[in-house]
Amino acid sequence: MTVSGSAPLLLWLGISLGAQTPATRDFDGEYRTAVQGAKDAAGFEWLGTLVRTCLLPESGGEDTSDNVPEFVANPAKVPLRDTWYAEPAKVFDDLYFVGGRIHSSWALPTREGIILIDTAYPYNSEELIAGGMQKLGLDPRQIKYILISHAHSDHIGGAEIFQKKYGARVAMAAPDWDTVEKYPNRYKTMAPKRDIVATDGMKITLGGRTVTIWTTPGHTPGTISYTFTASDRGRTVNITYSGGTAFNFVNNTADPGIRNFQTYIDSQKKIAQKAAAVHATVLLSNHSEFDNAYNRNRMLAGRGNGPHPYEVGEEWVKRYFNVMQGCARAAQIRLEQRQAR
Ligand SMILES: [Zn+2]
In the prediction, which pLDDT does 61 show? Predict the structure, then answer.
């Protein structure tokens, strides 16, 4: 195609550029809309997740340090037991809470052994998980699989210990296996030997029970989430497990922050679809801050014949992921605003 003469070209360019100039965006308005959407979705059920992702300050840049954590280097720096201890709880017929006041771990017993999801810290995993199981009549030597939602010390903390002690298989996604290998000091005593590389749609099956793994990168590059079932007084309950929540990724610059938020948002949309597909009515997490596990465990004692305190229903499960999406979108809009200046 040729353009003869400069006037038509300029005219064409002028029109074209004019048409492509975006209307001035109302970034503040867009931000408020996104936050309001998250607030509406949260209601009173998901206030902890709303506060963490919409209201509290985000962590910023990339952590490339490789230091031995204080609680590993110096036993005197281990947080006081009162700050983390929680009683274990039988939550469903075949799902046990063996976590702490802040961080959660979950045991799924089967006739061929136990699947354990997340492992708290190295300093409390023995008491909370192994001790908690024993209190509830489970044998920790029966742990066959350990699923690590992501490689942060509050969830991977007991994986090396239990892998060595019980010969349990450990599953984690490749990017987080890489992180563990890259930072030997940061993961001192918390570095299980690379074992099962979790992939999207992978099924971990043991004794007739299956946990399906879904890759949900965002919180960390290798964050994984799950769908599985449990039994509530004989009735099957569908559960979705959200593996990573706070905005820990690099987000203090538009590039790569905008992209990183998009990865996070896409993952929440994806796991929300998986939850809807199995009609999940229970949302679990690895922090009580998000799923209210600690309080729900105490409510269980007074349940009687009423509804199960963890069973919030399909609509609330969907709303959980809308909170995460809305808050991530709000933060992403702020970065877009910064980029536009
Ligand atoms: Zn984390």
Answer: 73
